[in-house]
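A.,

Following up on our hallway conversation. C-alpha cells first:
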C-alpha cells in the first residue's frame, strides 16, 4: 500500500517521443512533499517536455503521472488544480500594473472579490513588489517580472509549484532574489517546488534533491552533497589548446603525476592533493615545451565534470561554444 500523503509528484516510466526523437526516455521520479526538487540538464535535455507533461499540456507516449495521488491522465483537471506554474517564457501583461496582472489571474480562478484584494496584497508582499503595485509590468526588470509571475502562480494557493528555468538569463542579484522567494514559498507557505535549471550552482544552493537529465534520460539522482561526493571534491586542472598539441599535453600531465582525460580541445584531470604545486609544475613544463596553450585553469568541479564522470562524455552544447561563467551553466539558454 502506498502512503496517501508522502509524495507530491510521482512519475513512472515516462516516455515522450516526437517522431523518431525520444525527448523523455523512461524517466521515473518521486518528489516528496515539502521538497525543492531540481531537474538539472543542458539545453534539449528534455526538461520542458517533462514539465509540460506534468502540467497536462503534452500527452505522454507512455508512462504514468500522479499529482498528490491524482492520476494526471485520468483526472487531468483535478490534477492540474494542485499545481501552480511558471513557464520558461515570461507571461506577465506589460500594459497592466503589477496589481492588475494579479487581479486578472485571480478572477480567472474565480477568487471571491473580498478575498482577492487580500490575496493580491499578500502576493505583492511575498514577491517584494509592494512598492511597485501601480507600476506597469512592462517597465519591470527581468527579475521583477519573474517574481511577479511566481507570485501570480501562487494566487490559487496550489500545493505544488512548477518552474521551468526560473532564473535563466537573469544576473546574479536577480537570481538570488528568486532563490530567496522560492525558499520563502517553500518554508512559509509549505509549497512543494519542482524546478528545472541549467545552473549547477542553483541546484546546489537551492534544491534538497537533484535529478540530472540528459538526452531524455535520468543519469543521476541525489542530494547536492551526494552528487558532489560522487565526483569527489578535488580541484580540476584544465589546459585548453589546439587538437594536435593535446597528446603532448597529456604526457606532461602524466609527468606531473596527474590522471588526464583528453576531450575535444582540452586536457583535464582532478588535481588531488596540493593542486597548486601541480599547476606550477604544469606551467613550467608547458612553457619549456613551447606548446601553444590557449588557457590553463584550476577550478572546483562543475556540472561538466559531473557529466564527464557520469557519462564519459562532455556536456553537449546545442548553441555554440561552451562559455557559461567558468562552467556554472550547462550550455547557453535558448
Ligand atoms: N513539440 C516538439 N516537437 C518536436 N521536438 C520537440 C518538441 N519539443 C521539444 N522537442 C525536442 O525534444 C528535446 C527536448 O526538448 P526540451 O524538453 O525543450 O529540452 P530542455 O527544456 O531540457 O531544453 C529537444 O531535442 C527538442 O528539440
Ligand atoms: Mg526548456
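Then the amino acids I'd put at each of the 334 positions:
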Amino acid at each position: 500500500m502506498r502512503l496517501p500523503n508522502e509524495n507530491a509528484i510521482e512519475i513512472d516510466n515516462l516516455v515522450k517521443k516526437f517522431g523518431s526523437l525520444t525527448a523523455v526516455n523512461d524517466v521515473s521520479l518521486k518528489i516528496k512533499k515539502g521538497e525543492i526538487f531540481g531537474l538539472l540538464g543542458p539545453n534539449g535535455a528534455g526538461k520542458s517536455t517533462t514539465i509540460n507533461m506534468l502540467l497536462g499540456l503534452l500527452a505522454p507516449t507512455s508512462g504514468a503521472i500522479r499529482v498528490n495521488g491524482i492520476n494526471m491522465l485520468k483526472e487531468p483537471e483535478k490534477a492540474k488544480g494542485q499545481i501552480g506554474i511558471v513557464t520558461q517564457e515570461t507571461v506577465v501583461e506589460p500594459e497592466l500594473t503589477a496589481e492588475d496582472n494579479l487581479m486578472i489571474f485571480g478572477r480567472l480562478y474565480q477568487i471571491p472579490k473580498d478575498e482577492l484584494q487580500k490575496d493580491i496584497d499578500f502576493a505583492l508582499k511575498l514577491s517584494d513588489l509592494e512598492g511597485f503595485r501601480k507600476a506597469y509590468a512592462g517597465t519591470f526588470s527581468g527579475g521583477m517580472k519573474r517574481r511577479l509571475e511566481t507570485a501570480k502562480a501562487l494566487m490559487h494557493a496550489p500545493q505544488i509549484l512548477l518552474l521551468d528555468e526560473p532564473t535563466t538569463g537573469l544576473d546574479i542579484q536577480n537570481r538570488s532574489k528568486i532563490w530567496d522567494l522560492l525558499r520563502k514559498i517553500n518554508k512559509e507557505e509549505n509549497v512543494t517546488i519542482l524546478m528545472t535549471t541549467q545552473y549547477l550552482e542553483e541546484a546546489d544552493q537551492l534544491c534538497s534533491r537533484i535529478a540530472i537529465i540528459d538526452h531524455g534520460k535520468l543519469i543521476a539522482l541525489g542530494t547536492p552533497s551526494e552528487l558532489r561526493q560522487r565526483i569527489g571534491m578535488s580541484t580540476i586542472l584544465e589546459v585548453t589548446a589546439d587538437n594536435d598539441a593535446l597528446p603532448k599535453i597529456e604526457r606532461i600531465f602524466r609527468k606531473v603525476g596527474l590522471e588526464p582525460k583528453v576531450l575535444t580541445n582540452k586536457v583535464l584531470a582532478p588535481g588531488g592533493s596540493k593542486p597548486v604545486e601541480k599547476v606550477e609544475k604544469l606551467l613550467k613544463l608547458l612553457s619549456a615545451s613551447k606548446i601553444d596553450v590557449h588557457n590553463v585553469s584550476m577550478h572546483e568541479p562543475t556540472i561538466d565534470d559531473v557529466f564527464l564522470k557520469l557519462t564519459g562524455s562532455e556536456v553537449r552544447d546545442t548553441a555554440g561554444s561552451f562559455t557559461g561563467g567558468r562552467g556554472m551553466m550547462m550550455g547557453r539558454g535558448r
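The radius of gyration is 23 Å. Curious whether your intuition agrees with the design.

B.
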